[in-house]
User: Fold these one by one.
Assistant:
Number 1:
Amino acid sequence: MDGFAATISDLHRGIGDTQKAVFRNEGAPSYRTAVTAYFGKSDGLFFVVIDAQYGPQVTMDGVSMVGRVPSQLEEQLLDYMLSRGITPQYAPWADLGADDLGLVMYDQT
Protein backbone atom coordinates (compact mmCIF):
# COMPACT_ATOMS: atom_id res chain seq x y z
CA MET A 1 0.00 0.00 0.00
CA ASP A 2 1.54 3.27 -1.11
CA GLY A 3 2.31 5.68 1.73
CA PHE A 4 2.21 2.98 4.40
CA ALA A 5 4.94 1.11 6.27
CA ALA A 6 4.25 -2.55 7.08
CA THR A 7 5.33 -5.07 9.67
CA ILE A 8 4.55 -8.76 9.11
CA SER A 9 4.62 -11.33 11.89
CA ASP A 10 3.57 -14.93 12.55
CA LEU A 11 0.76 -15.58 15.00
CA HIS A 12 1.85 -18.04 17.65
CA ARG A 13 -1.50 -18.98 19.09
CA GLY A 14 -2.21 -22.27 17.34
CA ILE A 15 -3.79 -20.68 14.28
CA GLY A 16 -1.76 -22.71 11.79
CA ASP A 17 0.16 -20.73 9.21
CA THR A 18 -1.58 -17.42 9.95
CA GLN A 19 0.37 -14.20 9.68
CA LYS A 20 -0.52 -10.63 10.59
CA ALA A 21 0.47 -7.56 8.59
CA VAL A 22 0.23 -4.22 10.38
CA PHE A 23 0.25 -1.07 8.25
CA ARG A 24 0.77 2.48 9.51
CA ASN A 25 1.20 5.76 7.70
CA GLU A 26 4.87 6.31 6.88
CA GLY A 27 6.44 8.40 9.63
CA ALA A 28 3.65 7.68 12.13
CA PRO A 29 4.45 6.08 15.49
CA SER A 30 4.11 2.28 15.53
CA TYR A 31 1.08 2.40 17.85
CA ARG A 32 -0.94 4.27 15.20
CA THR A 33 -2.00 1.24 13.24
CA ALA A 34 -4.04 2.17 10.16
CA VAL A 35 -4.79 -1.30 8.76
CA THR A 36 -4.31 -4.80 10.13
CA ALA A 37 -4.60 -7.75 7.76
CA TYR A 38 -4.60 -11.45 8.61
CA PHE A 39 -3.67 -14.04 6.02
CA GLY A 40 -2.57 -17.64 5.72
CA LYS A 41 -0.09 -19.18 3.36
CA SER A 42 -2.72 -21.63 2.15
CA ASP A 43 -5.91 -19.54 2.60
CA GLY A 44 -4.68 -16.10 1.54
CA LEU A 45 -6.20 -12.90 2.94
CA PHE A 46 -9.18 -13.58 5.23
CA PHE A 47 -9.59 -10.66 7.65
CA VAL A 48 -8.94 -6.90 7.42
CA VAL A 49 -9.40 -4.30 10.17
CA ILE A 50 -9.45 -0.59 9.23
CA ASP A 51 -8.79 1.82 12.09
CA ALA A 52 -11.39 4.60 12.00
CA GLN A 53 -8.97 7.21 13.35
CA TYR A 54 -5.72 6.38 11.56
CA GLY A 55 -6.80 4.25 8.61
CA PRO A 56 -7.65 5.16 5.05
CA GLN A 57 -11.15 5.93 3.83
CA VAL A 58 -12.80 2.75 2.55
CA THR A 59 -15.92 2.55 0.40
CA MET A 60 -18.04 -0.34 -0.83
CA ASP A 61 -20.18 0.48 -3.87
CA GLY A 62 -20.28 4.13 -2.81
CA VAL A 63 -20.98 3.43 0.88
CA SER A 64 -18.36 5.11 3.07
CA MET A 65 -17.35 2.50 5.64
CA VAL A 66 -15.02 4.46 7.95
CA GLY A 67 -15.42 7.43 10.27
CA ARG A 68 -19.21 7.48 10.30
CA VAL A 69 -21.90 7.70 12.94
CA PRO A 70 -22.51 3.97 13.61
CA SER A 71 -26.32 4.18 13.45
CA GLN A 72 -26.18 5.93 10.06
CA LEU A 73 -23.74 3.38 8.65
CA GLU A 74 -25.87 0.52 9.97
CA GLU A 75 -28.99 1.95 8.31
CA GLN A 76 -27.18 2.41 4.99
CA LEU A 77 -25.65 -1.08 5.15
CA LEU A 78 -29.04 -2.63 5.89
CA ASP A 79 -30.54 -0.84 2.88
CA TYR A 80 -27.59 -1.99 0.74
CA MET A 81 -27.93 -5.62 1.83
CA LEU A 82 -31.70 -5.86 1.55
CA SER A 83 -31.79 -4.21 -1.88
CA ARG A 84 -29.40 -6.91 -3.13
CA GLY A 85 -31.07 -9.89 -1.47
CA ILE A 86 -28.25 -10.29 1.05
CA THR A 87 -29.28 -11.65 4.44
CA PRO A 88 -28.13 -9.35 7.25
CA GLN A 89 -26.87 -10.99 10.43
CA TYR A 90 -26.05 -9.65 13.87
CA ALA A 91 -23.07 -10.86 15.86
CA PRO A 92 -23.61 -11.77 19.54
CA TRP A 93 -22.24 -8.33 20.48
CA ALA A 94 -24.94 -6.71 18.23
CA ASP A 95 -22.73 -5.66 15.29
CA LEU A 96 -24.26 -5.91 11.83
CA GLY A 97 -22.65 -8.19 9.29
CA ALA A 98 -23.24 -10.45 6.31
CA ASP A 99 -21.49 -13.70 5.49
CA ASP A 100 -22.21 -13.10 1.79
CA LEU A 101 -20.11 -9.92 1.95
CA GLY A 102 -17.52 -11.21 4.40
CA LEU A 103 -18.25 -8.10 6.43
CA VAL A 104 -18.84 -7.23 10.08
CA MET A 105 -19.42 -3.66 11.17
CA TYR A 106 -17.53 -2.90 14.39
CA ASP A 107 -18.05 0.29 16.35
CA GLN A 108 -14.60 1.51 17.33
CA THR A 109 -14.91 3.77 20.35
Note: DSSP finds one helix and nine strands in the chain.
Number 2:
Amino acid sequence: MTVANLNEAELRQRASGLLASGRLPTDEPSATWAGSGRGERCCVCHVQVRSDEIGFDLSFQSTERELELHMHTRCRIAWEQERGRR
Protein backbone atom coordinates (compact mmCIF):
# COMPACT_ATOMS: atom_id res chain seq x y z
CA MET A 1 0.00 0.00 0.00
CA THR A 2 1.10 3.57 -0.65
CA VAL A 3 -0.23 6.85 0.66
CA ALA A 4 -1.64 7.39 -2.85
CA ASN A 5 -4.11 4.55 -2.15
CA LEU A 6 -5.74 6.61 0.61
CA ASN A 7 -8.17 9.40 -0.15
CA GLU A 8 -8.33 12.69 1.73
CA ALA A 9 -11.31 11.63 3.85
CA GLU A 10 -9.46 8.50 5.01
CA LEU A 11 -6.35 10.48 5.89
CA ARG A 12 -8.37 13.05 7.83
CA GLN A 13 -10.25 10.30 9.66
CA ARG A 14 -6.96 8.65 10.65
CA ALA A 15 -5.49 11.96 11.79
CA SER A 16 -8.63 12.78 13.77
CA GLY A 17 -8.56 9.43 15.55
CA LEU A 18 -4.87 9.78 16.40
CA LEU A 19 -5.44 13.29 17.75
CA ALA A 20 -8.43 12.12 19.82
CA SER A 21 -6.41 9.27 21.32
CA GLY A 22 -3.46 11.53 22.12
CA ARG A 23 -1.13 9.63 19.78
CA LEU A 24 -0.62 12.80 17.70
CA PRO A 25 0.04 16.17 19.33
CA THR A 26 -2.34 19.09 18.98
CA ASP A 27 0.33 21.76 19.44
CA GLU A 28 2.69 23.36 16.94
CA PRO A 29 6.00 21.58 16.35
CA SER A 30 9.07 23.32 17.77
CA ALA A 31 10.93 22.61 14.50
CA THR A 32 10.01 21.26 11.06
CA TRP A 33 12.19 19.92 8.25
CA ALA A 34 11.15 18.79 4.79
CA GLY A 35 13.03 16.81 2.18
CA SER A 36 13.28 13.46 0.48
CA GLY A 37 11.88 10.61 2.53
CA ARG A 38 14.35 8.38 4.34
CA GLY A 39 12.24 5.27 4.79
CA GLU A 40 10.58 6.16 8.10
CA ARG A 41 6.97 5.18 8.67
CA CYS A 42 4.47 7.99 8.52
CA CYS A 43 2.77 8.47 11.89
CA VAL A 44 -0.60 9.12 10.22
CA CYS A 45 -0.96 6.46 7.51
CA HIS A 46 1.79 4.07 8.73
CA VAL A 47 3.18 3.77 5.19
CA GLN A 48 6.90 4.21 4.59
CA VAL A 49 7.97 7.67 3.33
CA ARG A 50 10.05 6.67 0.30
CA SER A 51 13.06 8.54 -1.05
CA ASP A 52 11.07 9.64 -4.12
CA GLU A 53 8.47 11.34 -1.88
CA ILE A 54 8.64 14.53 0.16
CA GLY A 55 8.58 13.82 3.86
CA PHE A 56 8.26 16.06 6.88
CA ASP A 57 10.11 15.60 10.15
CA LEU A 58 8.39 17.42 13.00
CA SER A 59 10.02 17.90 16.38
CA PHE A 60 8.03 18.50 19.56
CA GLN A 61 9.61 19.36 22.89
CA SER A 62 7.99 19.47 26.27
CA THR A 63 9.30 19.33 29.81
CA GLU A 64 8.61 15.59 29.91
CA ARG A 65 10.04 14.47 26.57
CA GLU A 66 11.14 15.17 23.04
CA LEU A 67 9.18 13.66 20.17
CA GLU A 68 10.02 13.46 16.48
CA LEU A 69 7.34 12.48 13.97
CA HIS A 70 7.55 11.70 10.27
CA MET A 71 4.75 12.43 7.78
CA HIS A 72 3.98 12.47 4.08
CA THR A 73 2.93 15.84 2.68
CA ARG A 74 -0.71 14.75 2.34
CA CYS A 75 -0.73 13.29 5.84
CA ARG A 76 0.68 16.49 7.29
CA ILE A 77 -2.08 18.47 5.58
CA ALA A 78 -4.69 16.10 7.05
CA TRP A 79 -3.13 16.44 10.52
CA GLU A 80 -3.04 20.25 10.22
CA GLN A 81 -6.68 20.37 9.11
CA GLU A 82 -7.90 18.11 11.90
CA ARG A 83 -5.71 19.83 14.49
CA GLY A 84 -7.24 23.15 13.44
CA ARG A 85 -10.72 21.83 14.05
CA ARG A 86 -9.97 21.12 17.72
Note: Helices lie at 8-20, 73-84.
